[in-house]
Each structure stands twice: as structure tokens, then as C-alpha cells.
Amino acid sequence: MTGGWSFAGEAAAIGGSGVTLVEGSSFCVCDNGGEVRAGTPQGVFFRDTRVVSRWEVTLDDTPAESLAVMTTEPWCATFIGRALPRPGRSDSTLLLRRNRYVGSGMREDITLENLGGETAAVRLRLNVDSDFADLFEVKESRVPDRPPAQTSVHEGSLRLERFYGSKDHSRGVEVRCAEARADVARRCLVADVVILPHAKWHAVVQVLPVIDGKVLPTRYPTDRPVEETAPARQAREWRMSSPVLRTGDPSLGRTLERSRMDLGALRIVDPEEPDVAVVAAGAPWFMTLFGRDSLLTSYMALPIDQKLALGTLKTLARLQGEVNDPASEEEPGRILHEVRFGAEPSLVLGGRSRYYGTADATPLFVVVLGELRRWGLAAHEVSALLPHADRALDWVVNHGDRDGDLFVEYQRATDRGLVNQGWKDSWDGVTFADGTVARAPIALCEVQGYVYAAFVARAHFAWELGDEAGRRMWSERAAALKRAFNDRFWLPERGWYALALDGDKRPVDALASNMGHCLWTGIVDEDKAPQVAERLLSEEMFTGWGIRTLGTSMGAYNPLSYHNGSVWPHDTALVTAGLMRYGFVEEAQRVACGLLDAAEAFGGRLPELFCGFDRGEFAQPVPFPTSCSPQAWASAAPVQLLRTLLRFDPWVPHGKVWLDPALPPALADLAVDNLPLAGARVSLEVVGGRVVRMDGLPSGIEVINEPRPASGAVLGSPSAG
Predict the structure, then answer these.
(1) Are strands 94-102 and 76-82 parallel, antiparallel or unpaired?
(2) How many CA atoms, within 13 angstroms, populate the side-chain half-sphere of residue 477?
(3) Arithmetic mean of pLDDT, 583-602
(4) Half-sphere exposure of 295 (CA within 13 A, CB side)
């Protein structure tokens, strides 16, 4: 894959005391006045490189006073300020408006309006600089001192550029403004402006990335209205194609609308496949394709858009591992962990633009493909991906299971890779109950659940194809793994599943949320499920807002940690789905309502994670300071919660849709219109918790008003898996 990703979606992204704007491989982090301050994590980023590290407007060498910031889309914002009053005056008469549009760099429209009764003269200066720092250097506050970038005037524009070894390899930025002159020495654009009473002065500034000497075109040309540009058009198309929720609960309505908008904002496209959208992991730091994150997000977002899952699968299939490369941890059939585009690959994981060090993305690829088949979208395209699923399963069996014990383990190949390669991928994300860090190779409990679900999905594919031998083989693999898992991972003296097996095959005995994913995938034995549910809903694990990643009595527990006591919305949503799958309806409702309450407290937008304090300790969920927002699987979590509470399970190839709402009383009346299913658009209405209407179903599909069974006697049947 070459080049970066382009935006395909909708919704503003605002975080904390600043503003984040995103559009594909570009994003801008600035303060509420629109300024990018040198020496901060702010900037304009393109393809994982900060192309603008300073962006400040002054009027007569004085910063403007910020009045307001308004955002309506993910890629644009309006910053309003005023010049300081003239000496001897109490009021300002000069209004500054800055309309910013991010995408393949940035465009900023600057308007000065003279509200006074006499002509105003002012010097506007736009101070610009770039350190061309790698995204990871900025995120981790380790930007080294480097010589200043080369500065020149190029066709009247200010150009800053940094070269990497040769003049054929460079990153640069060109700042253009016809109404201003470039000052190379001061790294700024200057305009001496005279404005008549009650008149306006207007200028357009283009910030264009320069890659290896080539200036990239703007996403916002000045010869057409912004409303007619690609980002605006794609946002409208997303709105028109998305389902519409009607509910008497305004909180739920706000949260689901925010999720819909943010998922639109996080869609990106690969320039090699411009018609294929995938989902990025999150803004601002993870606006790129991630295997695990993108797969789980697109799974949870299926009720909104199944094409997102299809695009994610197709792109991951195209980038599927081909060779053995210890540096990047690429192996044949393996699904990648992440893609990066920085100018210095040595700064990223594995020292490659693609890094494959993940234990779970590969089985999840098969799981999502199987679920997409259930929804009945583009059967021929899903079938075309089946060989990639088989390659993924070949990796599971021959590479993932390193020692032939039926369990998928991980151990990084070099010291450049991730120590932990599950979703809790911080260095201390896998610990024993006493806080001791587990030693690799590590077999995570939830990864075995994903593998089990992948085997079941492949058995279903075989059954549909009339491949009885294949159905039997994959069914037997699934059954054998389930038996081994429940034998080796279950801790009867504690009443929960081990978080993992360590390098000595010892159970890592910490009480963690991971086992809730095992409920979701169905690998848990029925007789053990009640104890698992009880533990997950205990005071140790359930905060009232969500499920903690680690129990409060564990040695590594810290409610302020990233993975050892915090609450992750996607994690809680999958736990909720698992509880409902095994028939723990009241428990699932409690957890779902707690997370939806947290979403309301965050203004309708769930962050990547929040602190694991108990709801009785603080009246509001406590934010985690470096949490991404919007973040993909957090944005998809409310969608997954609603699907779980509706108990909506389609299996289009078998002509069935299970629909048996288990909505809490406060949510018992709702309707969903424009729900995509099997190429059609479906509407359903629930009154008093009962389905009273379901329209638009393709012919031949039966609605079954009961929950789909969690398991069946024969794998490969519609009542199994």
C-alpha cells in the first residue's frame, strides 16, 4: 500500500480544552482560539507527520482575543475573535473570523470585519513553522531537537521542507495566500490591511503537504463552494444512508446520533481502492487502519453500515501477511496490527509501515466475515474473501498455536515489537492476581474465544457450501478447543476464568474483564456462565458506569491506569452482549444502562476509556486524560448495546431473523427506520417492549420473536454458534 488514507465521513471531534478536526490522513489539534502553539502536542498532521507545528495569527503583533469556536463537521470549525481595543477605547471594532477546513493539509479562510465608523488599518501576521516530527514523537512528548526546516519562497508561497538522506526523500509544506507576502526570515505571511467602515477584508490560506518535492492538491479548491467539495458530499451521503432512531428517551437519541456521526467521521479510504471505505481506530492519534480495532468496530457498527465491515475486510485481506519477517512480525496469513505512513519508519513498531504483531486480529477477521454473511450483504463478495479466511485460519493453526496445545499464544519476535499483543497491549496489561507481570509466550483467554468463534463461523460456511467434510472438521476443532479451554482456563477455586496462560502454562489468575469476551463468543460452558456473570457484576468489577478491566482486589489494580482498572466502553459492550447471549437479561440491562448513563455524562460521546472509580464515589465518570475522542470502538459501543437489548440476530442465508427485545422500561418504546439488511431497508417499531411492526424485510425471511440460542447440539446449524 502506498500513500495515505482519505476521509469518507462526518462529525466534529472536540476534546477537552482544545479542538480536534479530522479528515482522513490529515488532522489538526489546536486550542479553542484556533492557534497551534509551538512546544505543545498541537499541530496539523498529514500521513503521521506534523507538517505545521506553529500557526498563530496576530493583529498589530498582538494575539486576538478568542470569543467562540463552532464546529458542524469533523473537518471544519469556525474560530471567532476580536482585536484588542485601540488605546483610549473600551470596545473593539475589529472582528476576526477564521473558517478552517482540514484535509490533505488545511485551508483557512480569514475574514476581518470593521464594525466601526472610521477606516481601520491593521497588520495581520500569520506565524508558521514546522518541525516535521513523527506522530509518535509528538504523542509521547519526545520530539528531539533538530535543525530548523529549510525555508524558501516558492512561486510567492512560503515553503518549509526537511530532507531525509537525499533530495529525493523529503517532507514539506507550502503555505499560499494571494493576499499576503511571505517573510522567510520570520517564517510568516504578512498582510497590511486597510478596511473601510462596516466593510470586510477576506483572504484564503492554503496549507499543502509536499511529499518528495511534489505538492499535493487541496481538498477544498477555491473555485467551488465548500458545500460541493468531496468531504461535504460524503457527509451528506452518510447521513442519508444511515438508520434513524426514534425514541422517547432524549439521552439515548443523543448518544446514538453522536455514534452515527462519529463513525462517519472515522471512515477513511485507501487511495489504491478509493471506492472502499474502512474505519480508522480513533482521533487524533490513530487515524489509520488497525486490524483489531477496525474489525471490532465494523462488527459493532453492522446495524448502521455493513459496507464498512466489507471494506475493512477487503483491505485487510489485500494486506494479509505473505512472508516471514521478524522485524514487522509478518507471517503468511496473518492480519496486520496497524499501518503507518511517517517519513521515518524506524520510529514505528517493527520499523516498518505495516506491523503485524497482534494475536487477535487474525481470528477476528474470520469472525467478522461470518457475521457479515449473516447480514446478507453482497454474498459474492463475502464468498470471494473465504480464501483469505482460510489463510487466516492456517495462520491460527500453524503459527498462532506455537506448541500444538490448541491455544493461540504470542511472543514478540524482536525488541521492536509489542510485548503484549491482545487488546490490552500495554507492557503491564497481563498480570497475575498478585500484580506480577506474566511472561511470554502468553495465551489470552479472549483470543481463544475469538478462535473458537472463527472455527464455528468457518463450519457454517462449509455447511452452506455443502462441504460436509469441512463442516465436520471445523466443528470438531471448535469442540476440541472449547473442551480444552474450559479445562485449562477455568479456576474453580476462584469462580472465574484465568486471564491467560503464561510461558510456563500457568494460569494467570487475575480477575479481569477479558472473560466477558468469552461469553460473547460462546466458548464458556453453560454450567460456568452463572459464576462468570456474578463476578462481572460484582462490586470488584462493575463500577455502575461499566465493567472495570481489572478487579479492585488485584495487585495491579489502579482506577487511573490504562488497562488495569479503567473502563473501556467497547469492552463493556462486548461483555453486555455475552451476558445477554447466556440469558443473563437483568445483568445485561444493568450494565447497558450504566454505560448509556456514562455516555450522557460525556455529552453523548463515549471516550476511548475512562477511569474506574465507583459510581458511588463520584457523581460523574472521571475522564482519562489522554483518551481518544472520537474513538472507533467506543463510538460503536452504543450501537452494539442497542442491538444487544433488541436481541436482533439476522441469519439471512437461512431466511431467519431473531428479534426479541429485552429493553429496560425507560427504553421500551422506540423505532428504527432505514436499517440495512440483505440489500434492503428495514423498519421496526417496539412499543412496551414488544415488536408491533417490522417492514421492508426481503421476501423469504422469517421473524422469530425469541432470542437465538447461544449454542446447539450440532455446530453448523442456524441454532449454533
Answers:
(1) antiparallel
(2) 26
(3) 97
(4) 27
What is the CA 606 to chain-centroid distance, rounded? 12
What would the grid cell of residue 28 be? 489538526
The pLDDT tens digits for 515-571 are 999 999 999 999 999 999 999 999 999 999 999 999 999 999 999 999 999 999 999
Cell, residue 719 = 441454532
Integer Cα distance of 281 and 277 in angstroms: 13
What sign has the CA pseudo-torsion 14, 19, 21, 27? negative
* More reliable by pLDDT, 721 or 544: 544
Q: Are the CB atoms for 22 and 285 separated by under 8 Å?
A: no
Element spanning 711, H or E:
none
- Let me know: does 683 contact 673? Beta carbons within 8 Å: yes
Query: What stretch of H or E contains 6?
Result: strand 6-7
Beta strand 656-659 pairing with 702-704: parallel
Q: Which CATH architecture has domain 242-651?
A: Alpha/alpha barrel (1.50)
Cis ω for the linkage preceding 638 (within 30 of 0):
no
The closest of 601, 616, 606 to 567, measured between CA atoms, is 606
Question: Distance from CA of residue 399 to its chain's centroid?
Answer: 28
Q: What residues contact residue 268 under an 8 Å CB cut-off, 6+ apart? A: 5, 6, 7, 8, 24, 25, 277, 278, 279, 280, 287, 288, 289
For the entire predicted model, the pTM comes to 0.90
Domain ranges in the chain with CATH number 2.70.98.40: 9-230
Over residues 1-24, the mean pLDDT reads: 52
Say which CATH architecture domain 9-230 belongs to.
Distorted Sandwich (2.70)
- Where exactly does CATH 1.50.10.10 map onto the chain? 242-651
